[in-house]
Design a protein that fits this description.
- The complex is a heterodimer of chains A (about 280) and B (about 280).
- Chain A has 12 helices and no strands.
- With about 280 residues, chain B is an all-alpha fold.
- Chain B folds into 2 domains: about 35 residues; about 230 residues, no CATH class.
- Chain B has a two-stranded antiparallel sheet.
- Classes of the chains: A mainly alpha (about 280), B mainly alpha (about 280).
- The interface between A and B is large, with 34 and 38 residues.
Amino acid sequence: MAVTGQSVAVLLAPSPPFATARKFGRLLIASWQDALQYRLEGAIWFLYDLLPPLGMLLLWLGAYRPGTVVAGYDAAGMVQYYLGVIALRTLLNPHPEWDVAEKIAKGTYAQVLLRPMPLVAYHLAGEVAWKGMRLLWLMPSLLVCTVAFWSYIAIPPLGLTYWLAFALSIPLGYLSAFFFKMILGYISFWTTNTEGIFVFMISIEMVFTGNFLPLQAMPGWVQTIGDWLPYRYFYFFSTQVLRGTLDDGALLTGLVTQASWVLVAYVAMRMVRTAGIRRYAAFGG
Amino acid sequence: MIGSPGAVTSWWHPLRRYVRLYWAVARYCLSRELEYRTNLAFNLLRETVYALLQIAFVDIIFLNVESIGDWTANRMLVLMGTYTFVSNTTYALFWESLTSLSSLINTGELDLVLTKPVSAQFYVSVRRIAFMNLAPAAFGIGIAAWGIGRLGITPSFLDVAAYAVLCACAVVTCYALWFSSVLGAFWAGRLQNAGAIFEPVVSMARVPTTSLASPLRLAFTFVLPLAFVGTVPAQAILGIAEPWHVPYAIGLAGALVIASNRLWHRALRAYSSASS
């Protein structure tokens, strides 16, 4: 099925908001049931969020001596940083690109395009439901980690401004990651061999999101490159808000930059998607 | 009768058949990968960059601290190189086969495997070889050698032999643990990512177990023996391994392979074909 310019406009036409919300809710429930049925698969993917940062944390703890401070983190700060990374990465790092790429490669993305709801809502519902399942695996794991690292744990004495900023940074971080991953997925309109690209991009992401190391501990030139990329706003910024070391100006700048990345990613995603659909040819019914 | 020419023939004959089969699989996989050379080159680059990144992360830690436990930066190079070698050799030999096992179970294609006149466990474990992972494996050995060079030590012949045996045992141990974990797909219904469980778990082997608190160190040595994947082989080439490490590693690898075989047969009893 070759898609013409006119049909692209029809496919991407907006749906009424209430109808979309209702469909989103239904799809969320269906996806949740799917995630619940395949909970063991979710558990295995969760290990990718849990174990690599936990391994890095154990490395750091082996390196700390009494009084050691690394890039502004003492041992307790480092433990709290990695526990924050585990929690936030599990909840805020979506992976829609694999599903998008698979559907495009198999030709079944045509069915998604023909569904009477916005594409973003369709993919978002599935992702959010699976994140709910990850939350079920995350809670007991965090509990075990908290008990294991109890002597390092302290609730930061943060003011209301910080908690508000943290609450705002969560959806902004998630949406920026989601839209960028969607762009990655849409690369499949041009090439079917996307697995290598995705894995390579995960490596890049690991560096600049602070998943393996706090960005402050990186060499200066890596930090400079990271300043020009969106990755630090996926969830690293949220960890920094929770540390309470940012002043009001830095909080505001961070949130505005995060919102800007969401906007940039969304616009870029729509452009890539429109261009991709124009050249998309699907097979099968 | 043991010791007679007939006894030698009786064990060598089936072994030769498996060696020839494995050789055929290797040639097929290599020719398949060479058919898409650009793809192979990109994958080689990707895997090497990924291995490089893992080592760079640890190196960056040493920009900030002097040692991890009693592991200095150069010793850690040896450990990371060893870990990179062992993990990537395991990936090269088993990744594609074990990650596709759950698909064989779910689609019923396992029926076809079970009717073949070879050990089914052998066949499902080695039917694909990912040559692209041999590049980072070689890179790992290079890193370990570099670390040894920077330490200014010359390992004795015994140290090198112990290192080679421990690395081989580590690959076998990884295989047995990985294979056993994938068998969960027989009972779990759909578990398409069963093969993916190994990667995040084995990543913990980068941590020098001697730097851990006692409970974790014991757990990583005797319960989930990741110490024998990174720390112990690295200790051997550095000349600081314990005398019991080599015989224990050999026994452990053998016991785990036997256990994985028992589990495989038990899993097969739970298998009901999905094909028509």
